[in-house]
Amino acid sequence: MLLLIPLALIVAITITDILTPGIQLGPLLVVAPALTASIAGPLGTGLMGVLAVTGQILVPVFQGTRMTASLQAQALGIAMISGFLVAFRYVRGRQERQLERTRSVAVATQEVLIRPLPRRSGPLRIATDYIAAEEEAQVGGDLYASVRHGGATRLVIGDVRGKGLNAIEDTSLLLGAFHGSAYRHLSLLRMVMHLGHAMYWKWACDAADDPVAAESFVTALLLDIPDDVGLVEIVSCGHPPPLLLRAGTIRPLDASSPGCPLGLMPPAEDQYVVDTFGFEPGDILLLYTDGVIEARNREGTFYPLAERIAAWDGNGGPEHLVAYVHKDLLRHADGSIGDDAALIAVERLPSERPRPPGRDAPAADAGVTGR
Q: pLDDT band at 134, cuts 50/70/90?
């Protein structure tokens, strides 16, 4: 349908030129192939160029005059410009196809690295969202993953310092270590030690060739959510605290003693603390990376995540929550954020298995800390 526009221009200019012998509008015919080059490929552009030259030639035929040198020069000029536009559109088409292939590789890479979390894991319903800062760069330093660990769901969400290929490599290493250690049945604290050693060893080896590697780190949260007990265990490695949504209230689950980001130094057990909080059926836990809370609007104001969530109607569960935050975040940032952002919403559903005798869930607002 868009091709009808340049075609109509050719018809209108040619008829006008035929009906007004004293005025030469033929040079305007070049607008048709130029416009076509922006909406069609080289074949369509070339065809419109041929029609434009034909229209120029038909003017003296219908006027009953001879093809003057001026008209010949005009027809030749239209033909030359049309040829240039065809070549330009061919090169541009190749670049667009190459960019599309690059985007498809980026999407495939992200799907391999950042595997979609299951919608259900035991008594949990999970929803995720990844907001890329740039459309062409769909893989960044934000990461998340989950594994089943005995009778619990283990989650990690983190943010690798830096961007580009180095960030992708670091993300791949951390997620590989996280997934690969699932069969070892490590405790949450031992898991933190394992990931910290993996990242520190990697960057220590890279420091000889890349001085920036010595300054690399990962902020992360690691969580264990048992199936049959209404609680969640969290280890913070310098990451923003999750938000607990319960019966219309919102509160951050702040770490009693936040640990340092992974990879800055060889990890030690006394650097990290396992905090335990109540997480009952109906509760929703929102995990996020700093790309969410550091998104700014035109006035430079950071995105007030907790305040904006308070306006959510609470319907639809975790899927609607992440969709609401996604839409509201982009509205706050005028459609573009400065850093990648990841969101995970986890809702505990009523347990399908009876709770073992003697194991009662902690009080709803309890926060128990252990090492």
A: low
**Parallel, antiparallel, or unpaired for β 284-288 and 341-348?**
antiparallel
Strand ranges of the sheet holding 152-160, from the earlier edge strand across to the other edge: 142-149, 152-160, 218-226, 231-237, 274-278, 367-370
Residue-wise pLDDT tens digits, 270-295: 889 999 999 999 999 999 999 999 99
Helical pair 4-19 and 42-63, crossing angle rounded to 10 deg: 20
Tell me how far apart the alpha carbons of residues 107 and 104 are, in angstroms, rounded to a whole number: 5
| Residue type for position 77 | G
Phi and psi angles of residue 276, each rounded to the nearest 5 degrees, phi first: -115, 130
